[in-house]
Amino acid sequence: MTAVLFDFSGTLCRIESTESWLRATLAATGTRMAEPQLIEAATALETAGALPGGAEPTAVPEELAAAWDERDLDAASHRAAYTGLSRQVPLPADALHDALYDRAVTPAAWTPYPDAPQVLEELRRRGIAVGIVSNIGWDLRPVFRQYGLDKYVDAYVLSYEHGVRKPDARLFAAACAELGVEPEHTLMVGDSRAADGGAAALGCRVHFVDHLPVRERPDALLPVLDLPESAELPPA
Predict the structure, then answer these.
(1) CA distance readout (Å), 52 to 58, 104, 115, 195
(2) For residues 110 and 46, what is the distance between their CA atoms, to the nearest angstrom?
(3) Closest by alpha carbon to 229, among 209, 203, 205, 195?
(4) Rounded alpha-carbon distances, angstroms, from residue 150 to 103, 108, 153, 188
(5) Is 205 strand, coil or helix?
(6) CA-CA-CA-CA dihedral for 82, 48, 97, 26, to nearest 10
(7) Alpha-carbon torsion (57, 83, 32, 146), positive or negative
(8) Hey, which end of the chain has fewer CB within 10 Å, N or C?
């Protein structure tokens, strides 16, 4: 293997909990909520799927269907979809819905998995190219800069910048082209068999990790260090 492609959310980094997200936004805006109401609102936001990178919505309102379908292809649609889902939940002020979205796309809302720095650093030491391939509607590069991980990344291939999303093989092909590597010599690492497994159609090998909270997944990425040098990888 000459390159490893990584998914972002649930693979290298994890979004904070919905409750933490709401508490941080309330604090930043100087808004007070009684504890029972705060917990109730956080639960409702989770059910609504309002946190980017969090749980999927149990149902998408008809008026948000178009924005939801386009959320990873266009930054405006991404914001409209998630603030629209947030607005299904009553909050003390309407401005909080935009403030919640703004919080979710900042580095403060994200935490790298514990073994991510070690794995990326070792791949760089071995001369293996690293690309980030993500279905996303906002620029995640500041997250990597914040945690000192950007120095290990050779290419960012984001769906909203290319107008195509995983599992479409064109997004993986764009990553391979940008890195100057052949798909058959490339490994894709992600948490979604449906989305990240699309790399197999291009000829990449694939490896999956579980999308778990950071504290519950301390070392799931470490096996990746053995996979690029193995001739016998499991099929997609």
Answers:
(1) 14, 7, 23, 16
(2) 17
(3) 205
(4) 21, 16, 5, 18
(5) strand
(6) -130
(7) positive
(8) C
Q: Tell me the residue type at 55.
A: A
Nearest CA to 22 among 91, 115, 106, 76?
Answer: 91
Residues 150/23, Cβ–Cβ less than 8 Å:
no
Instruction: Respond yes or no on whether the N-terminal peptide bond of residue 167 is cis (omega within 30° of 0).
Output: yes
Delineate the domains of the chain, giving CATH numbers in brackets: 3-14+110-229 (3.40.50.1000), 16-109 (no CATH)
Q: Distance between CA 38 and CA 101 in Å, rounded?
A: 17
Phi, psi (degrees; rounded to nearest 5) at 178: -65, -35
Q: Could you tell me if 22 and 45 are in contact, meaning their C-beta atoms sit under 8 angstroms apart?
A: yes
pLDDT interval class at 227 (50, 70, 90):
confident
Q: What is the reported pTM?
A: 0.94
- Does the pLDDT of residue 235 top 80, yes or no? no
HEC readout, 78-119: HHHHHHHHHCCCCCCCCHHHHHHHHHHCCHHHEEECCCHHHH
Q: How far is 140 from 112, CA to CA, in rounded Å?
A: 12
Report the amino acid identity of residue 94: D
